[in-house]
Amino acid sequence: MIPLPSDGSVSIAGRSPGLAAETIEAVVTLPTFKRPEQVLATLASLKAQQTARRFAVIVMENEAEARDGAKAALPLFERGEIAGMVIIAHERGNCSAYNAGWQTAIVHFPDFEHLLVIDDDEIADPFWLENMCKAAETLGADIVGGPQVPVFAEPAHARWAEHPVFAPPYRETGLVAALYSSGNLLVGRNVLTAMGPPFLDLRFNFMGGGDSDFLSRAAQRGFVLGWCAEAKVQETVPARRVAADWIRARSLRNGVISTLVEKKKRAGRPLAGAKVFAKSLALLAASPLRGAVRLVRTGSPATALYPIHVALGRVLAEFGYANEQYRQPEKN
Questions:
Q1: Paired sense of beta strands 184-188 and 55-61, if any
Q2: Do the beta carbons of residue 225 and residue 176 sit within 8 Å?
Q3: What does the pLDDT average to over 148-161?
Q4: How far out from the chain centre does Cα 245 lie?
């Protein structure tokens, strides 16, 4: 069994009464940071799930001082309206929160088969959990991703839905070669026990990309990846996320993450670093042409700039550039 950390980095704030942990088939992990109203909306969507599977929810509060998210969520658990628990992940950072929740699930729910992930700015479709679990079982997949459908705060921004920053990587249900995000994800217990803690690399704590790295390493280990187009979550997109500087920063960050993940993937192979750098330079050289093709196809200058920014981010990563957007979550 994987034990909880003994360093006090994780503590339990509360749990639902009479929780029969041994009967739980699936665990939903929900990290939250300074979004008490949004986490309540996410929990409401989880409470409304249409499934016969017994599932529990673990809320991971990552703001260890004020704990507004935990304070908002706790009454639902203490009244027994939602099965599960609220924990405090005392170490700040995206990866720290995920690690705390996943490790808690392993320790406290001995017989679950599927662990699911949803963020506190997302609303789950009523059949989300059932569709994700069924996809894992029918596809024979150890890990399943699903679409995060953007819901823009300003209706006029809906045209951004097809920008690569927001668009899903796949359109149809089936087995896939790679997954990139934990925003809508199912991970088998077998994957977690094999990979072991810390599941997400803390070097990605404030940049993001720990999920991409974890998924890349899991694929390398031979775990099967799948996609469920029917298991949708709606993701709230505030107006600031369609500003040119935010899109540019996110695109550059995606490039940085791409380089860091690929370096870890190639670690130990001859000339690994040189090969990654050469690939980055080749992508940068090709990016204007790729951008021009996108411009012709979409008519969107922002979409055309995306491959250029990603390639530039890949190269900048070689010189230590890191865009840690999660350092200032209010601007993210």
A1: unpaired
A2: yes
A3: 94
A4: 22
